[in-house]
Amino acid sequence: MHALDWVIIVGWLTYIVSHGIRRSTGTKEIEGYFLANRSLPWWAVGLSVMATQLSAVTMVGTTGQGATDGLRFVQFYFGLPLAMVILGVTLVPFLHGARVYTAYEYLERRFNPATRSLTAFLFLVSRGMSCGTIIAAPAVVFSAIFGWNLWWCVSLIGGPAILYTMIGGVQAVTWVDVKQMFLIVGALLAVVITLIVKIPVSPHDAFVVAGQAGRLRVFDFSFNLTNTYTFWSGLIGGTFLMLSYFGTDQSQVQRYLAAKSVDEARSSLLISAYWKIPLQALVLLVGVLVFVFYQYNPAPLLYNPAHERAVVAAQPALYAEMKQRYEASHILIERNAIRAEALDLASRVTHQPAKDVNYIIPRFVIDNLPIGLAGLFIAAVIAAAMNAISGELMSLSTTTVIDFYRRWVQSDIADDRAMVVSRIATVAWGIFACVVATYAVSLGSLIEVVNRFGSFFYGSILGVFLLAMIRRANGIGAFIGLVTGMLTVGAVNFGFPKVAFLWHNVIGAVVVVAVGMVVSLMTPPPAPARAVRR
Amino acid sequence: MTEEDGRRRFRRNLVRVMAVQVVTLALLGYLQYIFTP
Question: Which of 1-37 (B) contact A at CB < 8 A?
Answer without folding.
Answer: 1, 6, 9-10, 13-14, 16-18, 20-21, 24-25, 28-29, 31-32, 34-37
